[in-house]
Amino acid sequence: MTGTVYLVGSGPGDPELLTVKARRLLDAADVVLHDKLPGPEILGEIPEDKREDVGKRAGGERTSQAEINERMVELAREDKSVVRLKGGDPMVFGRGGEELRHLAAHDVPVEVVPGVTSAVAGGAVAGIPVTDREHASSVSFVTGHEDPTKVESSVDWAALAATGGTIVVLMGVGKLPEYTAELRDAGMDRTKPVALVERATRPEQRVATGTLESIVDVRDEAGIEPPAITVIGDVAGDRDAVVEWLENERRGEQADARSE
Amino acid sequence: MTGTVYLVGSGPGDPELLTVKARRLLDAADVVLHDKLPGPEILGEIPEDKREDVGKRAGGERTSQAEINERMVELAREDKSVVRLKGGDPMVFGRGGEELRHLAAHDVPVEVVPGVTSAVAGGAVAGIPVTDREHASSVSFVTGHEDPTKVESSVDWAALAATGGTIVVLMGVGKLPEYTAELRDAGMDRTKPVALVERATRPEQRVATGTLESIVDVRDEAGIEPPAITVIGDVAGDRDAVVEWLENERRGEQADARSE
What we know:
The structure is a homodimer. Chain A is α/β, with parallel strands linked by helices. Chain A has helices at residues 20-28, 40-43, 65-77, 96-105, 118-125, 157-162, 176-185, 215-222, 239-259; strands at residues 5-9, 31-34, 51-53, 82-86, 110-113, 138-143, 166-170, 193-198, 206-211, 228-232. In chain A, the strands form 2 sheets. Chain A has a 5-stranded parallel sheet with strand order 3-2-4-1-5, with helices on both faces. Chain A has a 5-stranded mixed sheet with strand order 6-7-10-8-9, with helices on both faces. In chain A, β8 (193-198) and β9 form a beta hairpin. The longest helix of chain A is centred in the last third of the chain and has 21 residues, at 239-259. The termini of chain A are far apart. β6 (138-143) of chain A pairs antiparallel with β6 (138-143) of chain B, so a sheet runs across the interface.
């Protein structure tokens, strides 16, 4: 008998943004393979004896993708029900496709359980719609943290700028100076609104806003740190009109939580 | 007293892909404003006396966005807890931004509850990762069904093709001939893999695959109908390697469901 491996998205960090299915599979799983991306609130709700952290190993090195792939197959062949829990959605810069192909190639039954991606949710909870009928007919997601074995970036920033749509950069804090420079060089307006959303949907969520010109300074002054997404586009300027109400709601919820 | 309006994403259609928070808010709501996009499985689980269909009105016309906006404010001012339920994610081509701004401008407390977007989930459950370390460094979402009051499309298909990343078209069945022609004219390879995913994550889910050249004929032969997404890019060719295992799993679940 071979167990099933579920490639499950954990959403952006708030445990309530797990899907009902993810919650059910986590409860039923024999083993949950994870790294730290799902965040402490979600990981803290999973019993310790089910959890296997494949984001680190003795000596401080990261577990390689090949080792994770092997471990999933090994556990499935022991007829375990395995949840491979991934931050956000498993197929959005999460190597979910590679894991899916590996499992299928080794005759392991597999199912993909989509999650809420922080690329969408990060803006949404900060009052920024990633698309808008008036001024964003498309939205593109890229990662600021490409495969380090690649010699040069394969992201065509000039083409992304030319779409005229919103650009969302995941894991986009560290390389912010590089890609904002590429976008300026490609002719994007220096006054284009840009927002950084750190730890979206989690209790410590922070938002900082500026322009394509100012955002690196804004980042440094605010001390924005990973994990965070960057939203580039006119929609990032929509936040001002709504933020007072969103923030009131958020503070209200936190006050409610404290008084319980 | 003014009630809160929750702009809630219902996900792609499978009720288990609602978030835990969406499920909680639906249970607690006084009124759920919806159209038909969340799909019959999700709407069927909401008690009839809570539901208000704002997708249609007497005479067969659609309720206008202005009327929906007014109705949300009206209910909140009656101190109702209002869920505005939207298919997928409220901020991905869902006019969530407009509703958010309207509510904030009328001093109505509002919260956005992100959902699983079918733009990501549609591919994922069909075995297609929207990004891939090897051959898709970005993914762009566009809608095939733009605001009908716009004179010409504001989507720059040539720029999207130039990104080299995956393109996902939501509501993309009807205009498939037009935008595949635009992509070919922009120089995209005619053999580029394309997949259509109809009613993703729902019991009647169907997938049809072809190339940029063949996909219109494929659509017609398979009789693919809305709602469906179109995935354009090398990732759409990844499906073959994994589909046998995904389909086995899906059939197994359906057999389980029947035997219960």
